[in-house]
Each structure stands twice: as structure tokens, then as C-alpha cells.
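Shipment paperwork, digital attachment
Item: protein structure file
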Amino acid sequence: MNVRRRLIPAAAAASLGLGALTACSSDSAASGNTDKFDVVASFYPMAFLAEQIGGAHANVTSLTEPGQEPHDLEISTKQRAQLEGADAALYLKGLQPAVDEAVGQTGIKTKIDAAGLTHLEDHGTGGHTHEGEEDHSEEGHSEEDEHGRDPHVWLDPVKYAEIAQGVGKAFEKADPDHAADYKKNTEALVTKLKSLDGDFENGLKNTKSKVFFTNHAAFGYLAERYGLTQEAISGVDPDSEPSGARVRELQQEAKADGVTTVFYETLVSDKTAKTLARDANLKTDVLDPLEGITDTSRGDDYFQVMESNLKALQAALGAK
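Attachment content:
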């Protein structure tokens, strides 16, 4: 069952002043036919890679506006033209069906599918079941591709680094005049990602609990990498209060696993999380799936937000 989150639409985000904090442009007028290597990225994690690797030689634009829910993106006629005029498209197949279709229909020479640059796994909803409990995985939020694989690889710094290396090689091949710079930029990015991986590994090595609650099953790779268990509670409508039975189940699990916190996202209503937290005597905090950067994000770029996520997890899990 594919349950979609109710996020702030792009238009509403704009009215709330949720401006982009990333350097990439979302204006199709600036997307192609420039004197630089023109790259159209599907959404923020891909745009960030393109910017970091492309550096001064790349003109990067994103198909997904700040504050827009990337999974529900529909491609406009203007955006199709944007793709046609680009030198390369960087996307994550399986995450945004409309992008997959549009890229497949364009004559763009360099099509870089990030999903093919690392190994995708099936994490389901990230939930787990205790003896005598029902498995609520079908209630959970599912964002798997057609093969049942979890696309949220960018939240694992190791897998994100693998993708970065593949993107770097693709840039070198597509724009050989600047290959040396792309290689250098890729190496620098991978070094920073390895450092981030070390921060997470050391920061989450000794914790009182290994289980965290989240309303978005986006953190399966991160949980697996650092020995944690993600319990996704979405499937409970963000605009409605959870059932008494579900609250009791969460209370039992929180007690059994030492869970202290219900995580939610900056762009999702915190009503359900706060209701669950109040009824189960838990705290609430933000764990950002980094599908976009807005004025409400806890950081200006991927690395800053990931460090904020680490601090949130350390506090919730009782890092020693």
C-alpha cells in the first residue's frame, strides 16, 4: 500500500517564504544552452551532487522546487524543454515516476541514473514486530520502486559516496575538457562523505537504545549502516489522531526498546507526532529525510542537515 505524505505544496511553500538555500537554479530559462556543462537534476540530493562535482564548470538546475513533495512531481511542458536543452540529466530511478518517463523520452545524450550506481535494498516500511504483536507494515508509508527497493540511498553517506563516484566518472566522460576538475571535486566530496560516515559511526556506537520512531520510512539505509532499527509509524493520517490501539502498541514498544522520541519532518504537520508523543509520554524532534532544503531546514546544505540529524539521533537514543 503506497501511502503518500501530505506535504506543503510548492505554491504554499512559496507563500510561506520557503526559499531555496541551494545554489542550483530551478528556473528553466537558465537550464540549458549556456556556455557551461548544463545538468538537470531531479531533486535536491541529485542537484547537490551535481553542484559539488560540477563546480564552476556546471550549470545545475532542479526539476523539484523547494518545499515541493518530490514523489508527486509532475513534469510540465517547460520542464520537458528544460531536459531537452541540457547536456546531462541526473536522477534516481524509481523515486519520481514522472521524471523517469520524461528522461526516457528525451534525446538527452548523458542520462545518469543514480540507482544504478549503488545497490538498492528492500527495507519495506522499516518496522519490526515483537512476539505476539501484529505486523503493521502494510499501514506504513511505502516509497519503494517497482522492484520493492528503497530509494533513499542518499541518507547513507557510504552509498551516497558510491553514487558520487559514478556521477564524477559520467561527468568526466560527458565533458572531457574539464575531466581533471571533475575528478578532483569528486575526490574531495567523497572524502567529506567518509568523514561524515565516521561521525555517524562514532556518534551512534554507544547508545542506550537502538530503536527510533519516525513518521517517514526514509531511514532504512541509515539505520542498517549504523546498527539501528527504524520503526515507521506513518500510515496514520497526518491530519487525524492515531487510534487508541496504535497508541497502546507504541507505548509498549517504546517501553520495551527504550524509545524516547517520535521524529517528524519540517514539511509535514507535527499534529500526529505530538499526539502520539503526548499519549505515549514521548518527546518529539525533527529527523530530516533531505528531500529538499528550505528556510525551515536545520542547515544550509546536505552536510549541515546530516550533522543535525546525527545530533537528534544521539539525543533520542541516549548516546554515551
